[in-house]
Amino acid sequence: MMIRSRTRARLLHATGAVLVLVLGLTACGSSSSGSKQSSSTTESASSGPVRGFDGTTVKLAGIGIKAQLPGSEWGARARIKRFNDTNEIKGVKLEYEEFVDDKFDPAVALSEVRRLVTQTKVFALVGDVTPVSPGAYTKEQHVPVFGYAFDNSYCSQEPDPTIWSFGFIGCVVPDNPKTLPDNLVELYDYASKELGTPHPTIALFNTDTASGHKSSDNALITLKGDGFDTLPALPIIPPPPVTDYTPFVQRILTSDHGHAPQVVACYAATDCVPMWLQMKAAGFKGIFYHTIYADQLVKPMAGTVVGVGWANFADPTPAVTQLSDDVKAVKADQGLDIGVAAGYFSTDMFISALKKAYAKDGAKGITPEKVRAAASTMTWEIKGLVGPTKYPESSVKPTPACGTLAKSDGTSWKTLIPFTCASRSFPVK
């Protein structure tokens, strides 16, 4: 299973219980498109005294909750293999050392990252999917980090070109944000049309954690701004294990003055599955929205609507085909899910920054400092699949906020609203 996607609503909604990680709901410096990554640079690299780069090989690693997002490793390895196979920078190879398990423990995460930096001597971290990232340490040690941005080391109050952590959809778990991105507009557009009302009632439920309460408050601002008739948030799901969801289902089904709301939004990560199954069995006929996007969830989540921060993998496009082919080249049986997306997209983002730094200074540009500087002012995207993500603006919030709305018919995720981007934002009062 995996975590979900789009700004703490698509954001570590998973990071609440392990996840309340959220996935996204959450994207012209120098623009780098993943669809053009196969072109080679003609100049060769030379050696230099750089941690993680011996003149020919750049060492990389990843970190995250292996039990939740194991696909991150394979997404990173897939993009690295294509970089190496196609000689995207002549004379330079990328070497993926390992994907370490943070065990959802800040102490473990710090210990493992310290080992990667001081012993393995990695150049950068890619496919970072930990909500307990030791961001202060990586910044102090000049370690560029590229990932899903499940912690606020990726965030700043104002556009910040000095940060060391970069999210492929930007900052998704801001601390005390001034504004929030319009990352739920697709849900509003679909619900208002489907239900025939400009102000559908919506109830949001989440984990009963500090992050669950905070992300719920933020999501209500966006939902109300889009036009929903918002009911009080219900951060009611306790930390696992949960043995009986019945009381929580009843709370939701009577949340609109004793009646069921027209729309229910689940921000409780994997708890969305048993909640949906019980709500459906209890006769709920409204729209059930979540962000836990994965092929293995298509059947159990049949009838639900999912929001993701990239194009639907079920829609055949050149970019999706390239992604799928790259992943199969390293692990034939690996499906496309949120973990794979996080590893692949963030590694592509690192490669874009690496190529930008190399284009400017040749081999001398391959330093953690220069790659960080390149990332801090670039716009990254894989055309037709994800992005654009503009930095440094995206250190504050996803700029722009992009996503897709899809619905499970029991066999696949069918696109309701194709991948699109919104630049509107809402002030936090």
| β-strand number | 18
Q: Choose one word for the global shape.
A: globular
Under CATH, the homologous superfamily of the largest domain reads Response regulator
Listing every helix as H and every strand as E from the N terminus to the C terminus, the arrangement reads EEHEHEHEEEHEHEEHEHEEHHHEEEEE
Poorly predicted spans: 1-48
- Work out the helicity level: 25-40%
Could you give a short account of the major beta sheet?
Answer: 8 strands, mixed
At CATH level 2, the architecture of the largest domain is 3-Layer(aba) Sandwich
Radius of gyration: 21 Å
Question: CATH class of the largest domain, anyone?
Answer: Alpha Beta
Name the beta content range.
Answer: 15-25%
Integer tally of domains: 2
- What do we call the CATH topology of the largest domain? Rossmann fold
| Structural class by helix and strand composition | alpha/beta
> What is the terminal-to-terminal distance?
36 Å
Number of helices: 10
Q: Overall pLDDT, averaged? A: 89
What does this structure look like?
With 429 residues, the protein is of the alpha/beta class. The protein has two domains: 12-174 and 316-401, Response regulator (Rossmann fold), CATH 3.40.50; 180-314 and 404-427, 3-Layer(aba) Sandwich (Rossmann fold), CATH 3.40.50. It is 30% helix and 21% strand. It has helices at residues 71-85, 106-120, 135-140, 185-195, 210-226, 246-253, 272-281, 318-330, 338-361, 368-376; strands at residues 31-33, 57-64, 93-101, 124-128, 145-147, 165-167, 179-181, 201-207, 229-230, 234-237, 263-266, 287-290, 305-308, 379-382, 386-390, 401-408, 413-422, 425-427. The strands form four sheets. Strands 8, 9, 10, 11, 12, 13, 16 and 17 form an eight-stranded mixed β-sheet that branches. Helix 1 packs parallel to helix 9.
